[in-house]
Write a structure and sequence with these properties.
single chain, alpha/beta, 2 domains, 9-stranded mixed β-sheet, 8 helices
């Protein structure tokens, strides 16, 4: 691995000298390695010129080990709906929200601009609420969107009335963008602060079955927790308000 080679090349060097740089760069002929070696020596000479090579080698090995651990803790999958080329390794968009919903044990936050004609999602959310999951839906409304949304998104979830909590971004809190108001356009699902599905797809039948839509499913790592913290903070600060 290039990082190991670079660590070996700086180990025992007295500092970021011109000779040490030349020896390190010559360790591997690949352009990628040489570029990273040059960047390392520039940073070493610019910020810690008195640090000996042993310390730099240890720092490189520590960074490599940390990166490996983070990669093992977090996985990212592509979700795609649309024409297939055979070149993209991805799962179907319609599969991702179902898996996220079914994985939820404690909490499930769903954000969507529009929602309709998606009985499967409604049924899965109802099943999650029935097994004790806190289900929160943050949706746009026809009133807050100033007519941009022609059908109430909440009407797609009639089976969840009384079982889930609904939130919206009030129109009077939205900044002006020219002669219009800013739009609520986020689409995502976050389960238990552990899994997040971030997508271009609304919770509509066309979006998850027919449109060209692209998203990412993130399992583990800091991203799901950061997203949930962001949403709950917006609720706590009354930017996203509960709709009764």
């Amino acid at each position: 691995m290039l990082v190991n080679q670079l660590a070996q090349s700086v180990d025992h060097e007295p500092g970021p000298t011109a000779a040490a740089r030349s020896r390190a760069v010559a360790k591997n002929p690949s352009a990628n390695y040489r570029r990273h070696a040059t960047v390392l020596f520039d940073a070493w000479a610019g910020s810690c010129p008195d640090l000996v090579g042993d310390g730099v080698a240890v720092a490189l090995q520590a960074a490599l080990a940390t990166t490996k651990d983070l990669r093992e803790l977090q996985s990212v999958e592509i979700a795609w709906t649309g024409p297939a080329t055979g070149l993209l390794v991805a799962r179907a968009t319609r599969e991702a929200p179902i898996e996220v919903i079914r994985s939820a044990k404690r909490s499930l936050i769903c954000l969507s601009y529009a929602a309709y004609k998606n009985e499967l999602i409604q049924d899965e959310l109802a099943a999650a609420a029935k097994r004790g999951v806190e289900v929160m839906l943050i949706l746009d409304t026809t009133a807050d969107s100033k007519g941009a949304l022609t059908m109430e998104a909440r009407s797609a979830f009639e089976a969840l009335e009384g079982a889930a909590s609904f939130y919206a971004w009030p129109g009077d809190l939205r900044p002006d963008v020219g002669n219009q108001k800013a739009k609520f356009h986020a689409k995502a699902m976050i389960a238990d602060r552990e899994v997040a599905f971030v997508t271009s797809a609304n919770l509509t039948g066309a979006a998850i079955n027919s449109n060209i839509e692209l998203g990412l499913v993130v399992r583990g790592g800091p991203v799901p927790e950061q997203l949930e913290t962001q949403i709950r903070s917006l609720i706590a600060s009354d930017i996203l308000r509960r709709v009764t």
